């Protein structure tokens, strides 16, 4: 924990971070009155700079599918959602249009009765766009969704702390769904070269330190009464359950969702103090395009209700 | 060079790479007849995997502004452009709408005379969208632009080689503008751990090898008669010119554009065998939103014409 504080002090944060912090406070304040539960969904990978004047960084594979899809299902279940996501990773709603090239779906509509031409979505794409647009506008009207961006590991940790503290007045109505793929390693500022590493110097030796775990202060201090779900991604199946249990034992939060890189879109395991529950899609569900996040979120919402009723 | 061949053999490439290779061949074949010059513009960073089942990779800061903007100016100068870009980095034309949230600029237009509702761009955004859309449609109609995506360093090198060889029949009409920020270091497959590196094992030691330089075979073998421009990005001003000259001496291509991380949007230096020419934006140009790529591309097009006329 002392480590994590040192991490906050050694980094400097862009102004957008404090703007985002204020938006989170306002959003939570608004939903203190609506009475609906509020989920913080984190999503996407984190960048870890390798140089002071950063040209290179370590990143991870995440484009944020898990987080973006889950956010939509939390909204469907009536939650307000703070979506804390890595800049340029997938976003709820727009992700459905991701495979379309914006300029290919638009056309100029020159109206003979009107001197101004307008731009319309080509009729072929209308049903798809219309569907997403209506849901998005509905969510926006209800002020159900707040989107906050981060880039680096430092910005992520700063905003995670800020959002957690903002959520704490909601007590057990707050839910944290930590789906972002946070880097485990970083190079401390004082050990970073100032300038771009030169390839003419030959092979590169990098020494990275372990990122301090933020789940301890998050659960113990920042938002002690919330319902907290973390994620464990592994590539080795033999480690999945043991690593998930280890995380629960260490941080004393409520759920770990374990998943393997290769199979993460069709099965995950939900691990709590008392049970391990595999959540799977059948072949038929897969072929119909059912998203496993619909089942994960349903299970989490159910567990959150039980958690609130026992409190 | 032997190194680079080994690199190609040790990597495996997705099917999309051969599809892209075929598209490049067709595109060049089409433009052999149109007679216009063809530019290959590379753009964005390259991912370098750190693990066999990749969770982590080394990346660099580039979002591909230089490449995307330059591609537009080459099109304006009448070039056909193969835009070889990192997946999810900036694209020509759509980049102008990047700051807009797609679902915020659209609205449902329910027509009382028509049972089907349509989706239109809100009138506030129409002029901006219309402008980009018309240019894009014009370029598309003339088959002036081919966009090809890559992700990893391996995919980039594969496609760079494929596109270069495809362009070689055009002789000096082909121009290569290598603005992608290619990683200098990588971990060879046989030295990569199979599974995700565990943070519980403590600090991480990484040993990266220098990526074989592809400019030597590119200039000497793949596309020997083309006009080739490479980029040199540094953070230390004292190294910029010497590094740029070194590159020219080593690879025997035509131009190095040198730029510093901090000032790259307002000044670059164009280095050739005979001269160094600083290209700068005045404060007034900066405030008017002039993009430095307009000047870089003008200069390059001029040099390319001279190059062709001397051949």
From TrEMBL, chains A, B:
GO molecular function terms noted in the UniProt entry: phosphopantothenate--cysteine ligase activity
GO biological process: coenzyme A biosynthetic process
InterPro entries: CoaB-like_sf (IPR035929), DNA/pantothenate-metab_flavo_C (IPR007085)
Pfam family, one: DFP
Broadest EC class assigned to this enzyme: ligase
EC number from the UniProt entry: 6.3.2.51
Residues annotated as domain DNA/pantothenate metabolism flavoprotein C-terminal: 175-273
Catalytic activities: (R)-4'-phosphopantothenate + L-cysteine + CTP = N-[(R)-4-phosphopantothenoyl]-L-cysteine + CMP + diphosphate + H(+); (R)-4'-phosphopantothenate + L-cysteine + ATP = N-[(R)-4-phosphopantothenoyl]-L-cysteine + AMP + diphosphate + H(+)
Signal peptide limits: none
Annotated family: Belongs to the PPC synthetase family.
Protein purpose: Catalyzes the second step in the biosynthesis of coenzyme A from vitamin B5, where cysteine is conjugated to 4'-phosphopantothenate to form 4-phosphopantothenoylcysteine. Has a preference for ATP over CTP as a cosubstrate.
Name recorded for this polypeptide: Phosphopantothenate--cysteine ligase
């Amino acid at each position: 924990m002392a480590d994590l504080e040192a991490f906050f002090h050694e980094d400097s944060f862009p102004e957008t971070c404090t703007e985002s912090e204020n938006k989170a406070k306002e959003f939570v304040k608004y939903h203190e009155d609506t009475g609906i539960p509020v989920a913080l969904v984190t999503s996407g990978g984190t960048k870890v700079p390798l140089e002071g004047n950063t040209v290179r960084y370590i990143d991870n594979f995440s484009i944020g599918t898990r987080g973006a899809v889950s956010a939509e299902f939390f909204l469907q279940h009536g939650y307000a959602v703070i979506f804390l996501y890595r800049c340029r990773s997938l976003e709820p709603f727009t992700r459905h249009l991701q495979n379309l090239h914006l300029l290919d779906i638009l056309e100029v509509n020159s109206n003979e009765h009107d001197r101004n031409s307008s731009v319309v979505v080509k009729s072929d794409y209308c049903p798809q766009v219309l569907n997403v647009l209506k849901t998005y506008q509905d969510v926006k009207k209800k002020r159900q969704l707040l989107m906050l961006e981060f880039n680096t590991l430092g910005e992520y940790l700063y905003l995670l702390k800020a959002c957690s503290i903002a959520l704490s007045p909601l007590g057990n109505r707050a839910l944290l769904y930590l789906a972002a793929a946070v880097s485990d390693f970083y190079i401390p500022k004082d050990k970073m070269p100032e300038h771009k590493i030169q390839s003419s110097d030959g092979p590169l030796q990098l020494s990275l330190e372990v990122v301090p775990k933020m789940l301890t202060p998050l659960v113990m201090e920042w938002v002690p009464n919330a319902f907290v779900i973390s994620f464990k991604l592994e590539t080795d199946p033999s480690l999945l359950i043991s690593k998930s249990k280890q995380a629960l034992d260490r941080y004393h939060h409520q759920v770990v969702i374990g998943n393997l890189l290769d199979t993460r879109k069709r099965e995950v395991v939900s691990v709590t103090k008392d049970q391990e529950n595999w959540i799977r899609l059948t072949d038929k569900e897969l072929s119909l395009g059912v998203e496993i996040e619909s089942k994960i979120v349903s299970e989490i919402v159910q567990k959150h209700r039980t958690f609130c009723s026992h409190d």
